[in-house]
Amino acid sequence: MVIYGVALLSFCMLAGVFAGDLLGELIGVQANVGGVGIAMLLLIALSNFSHHRLKLSPMTETGVTFWSAMYIPIVVAMAAKQNVIAAVSSGWMAIVAGAAAVAASFLMIPVLARFGGGDRDAD
Amino acid sequence: MLTDALVEVLAKNALITAFVFVGLLVWLSYALSRTLTRGHLHGSAVAIALGLLLAYIGGAVTGGTQGLADVGVLAGLGVMGGAMFRDFAIVATAFGANLDELRKAGAAGAASIVIGVVLSFAVGALVAVASGYTDAVSISTIGAGAATYIVGPVTGTALGADSGVIALSVAAGLTKSVLVMVGTPLVASRIGLDNPHAAMIYGGLMGTTSGVAGGLAATDPKLVPYGAMTATFYTGVGCLLAPSVLFLAVRALS
After folding, report:
1. Per-residue pLDDT tens for A55-114?
2. Which of A11, A76, A109, B160 has the least CB density, counted as fewest CB within 10 Å?
């Protein structure tokens, strides 16, 4: 049943976000620490587990894969609701700070990817 | 009268209206990608860029803070593109992600989060110093804003920064997320962003969840779960480091 997949996905998200909030509380920051990341790990764990023991029916999987496929349209809607005008009209200092941070981070990717990525060509 | 009735139907069913609107926007974007760029710029990259452009126009017309979602009948965009559905869809992308890839890049991904926060903070702080800020609180708040637009105000509030400085830190973070969305597909091949390992490092270095979500969607949707996984830890780590260790470092240096 489709709803089983949707419910599984929803459960993972709620459990992950809750854990992220607790983690934030625990280390004393006013933010959710990795809630979505924990939810993703949970979904991966549960879906791998159920492949072996319970086996999700194709219909149940549809309940998850539909939302995965809605990802890009949702991101397009997210882009359309950004406060772009505040980013553009706040003066050059904020723009330079943001742009310089992006440039520096982009440049670091190939540097860091080399570490521990040596076995990448092996498989 | 007919238009009034139509507007009422669209406004009453705001989320459904948003589905139709985004559907049309995506269709138009893929058509533009095919005809104007002959597929070189991916359709979703065009759609995200158009979305940002429309958000600018929406903000200019309405004077609001929600981009196109402030335009009456398009209020549903705020729900569809809000954090709830965004995070829900991101979690869904993890279905089918390769557990071994995650494990292999785990350590490098975790390290990239800390390096990413410190790097963005340092660059933002340097820009603040170069533009004449001398007090450690303002410098740290702007540096934190260069991490993400959540780390900025959280840090500024914790340190008691001026509200104008907090607004600047939010703007720096917004600029970052917009640039990551637009810039990622353009530089992806040059920085080797074409495998799960690099995507996890990318997510950890960039950190802005919306920027990473948009940037990877426009580059290669298969990489989304790997980048999103590390990016979602970034803001938490930033909120932890910026008002504490990093602020103390700035104060010691200034």
Report:
1. 678 888 899 999 988 988 998 898 898 888 877 776 788 889 999 999 999 999 888 887
2. B160
- What are the structure tokens assigned to B245, written together? 């260790």
B113 Rama sector, left if φ>0, alpha if ψ -120 to 50, beta otherwise: alpha
Number of domains in chain A: 2
| DSSP characters over B183-243 | HHHHHTTTTT--SHHHHHHHHHHH--HHHHHHHHHHH-GGGHHHHHHHHHHHHHHHHHHII
User: Which residues make Cβ contacts (< 8 Å) with residue B47, sequence separation at least 6?
Assistant: A72, A76, A79, B25, B26, B29, B30
Domain endpoint, select from B29, B52, B81:
B81
Alpha carbon B93 to chain centroid, angstroms: 17
- State the Rg of chain B over Cα: 20
CB-based contact A81 B178, cutoff 8 Å: no
What is the distance between the alpha carbons of residues B144 and B158, in angstroms, rounded to a whole number?
Answer: 12
Instruction: Check CB contact under 8 Å for A75 and B48.
Output: yes
Using an 8 Å Cβ cutoff, are B214 and B180 in contact?
A: yes
Residue numbers in A near B53 (CB within 8 A): 84
Distance between CA atoms of residues A109 and B198, nearest Å: 7
Instruction: Give exposure, A68-79, as e/b (b: 16+ Cβ within 10 Å).
Output: bebbbbbbbbbb
Q: Count structural domains, chain B.
A: 2
Cβ contact, residue pair A29, B97, below 8 Å: no
Q: Write out the two tokens for A15.
A: 């459990």
- Report angle CA B153, B169, A20 to the nearest 5 degrees: 40
First to last CA, chain A: 37
Q: Do B113 and B207 touch, CB atoms closer than 8 A? A: yes
**Residue range(s) defining the domain that contains residue A52:** 1-70
Is residue B112 domain-resident? yes
| ipTM of the prediction | 0.85
Whether residue B156 lies within 8 A of chain A, CB to CB, comes out as: no
Q: Which residues of A touch B191 (CB under 8 A)?
A: 106-107, 109-110
Q: How many CA atoms lie within 13 A of A97 on its CB side?
A: 37
Residues A66, A92, single domain; the answer is no
